[in-house]
Amino acid sequence: MESNSTRVAKIATKMAICDRHEEEQLKKYYSEKGIKVTAVNIGGNINSSITKILESALVAAKRNELIREEHLHEGAVIGATRDAIMQIANRANGLNVGGKIGIAKRGEHISVCIFLNIGLLHLDEVVIGIGHRSLPQ
């Protein structure tokens, strides 16, 4: 049987890899199931974009009411996003990236997934990172 943390991580991944049209459909679908989701586009040089990625994840989570504006909730999103960044940092170091952050929350579980295309000459590399935290209700 699948754990809640695994289910939320899969949903965050779906949000990170979907296009804008699918994103709106998924928001409605998961809302009906009591799962809060959001996604935000990101891009630029990975080294100079880390702060912006953290800010984007935090703002999206607050704006879409996945978290409350309090220290523990904000710290959970930042921590999960940093975990995801650490998983992709070596592959994207110094390169331009474009992609999306997907965030999902159900009950006490919140997951942040970062899905990126890495531009390298005419070759495109793909990388994904994911982080999870538990939050007080």
UniProtKB/TrEMBL annotation:
SUPFAM superfamilies: Hut operon positive regulatory protein HutP
Family: Belongs to the HutP family.
Top-rank lineage group of the source organism: Bacteria
Species the sequence originates in: Clostridium saccharoperbutylacetonicum N1-4(HMT)
CDD domains: HutP
Name this polypeptide is given: Hut operon positive regulatory protein
GO molecular function, one term: RNA binding
Keywords, in A-Z order: Activator, RNA-binding, Transcription, Transcription regulation
Cited function: Antiterminator that binds to cis-acting regulatory sequences on the mRNA in the presence of histidine, thereby suppressing transcription termination and activating the hut operon for histidine utilization.
Assembly with partners or alone: Homohexamer.
Tagged with keyword RNA-binding: yes
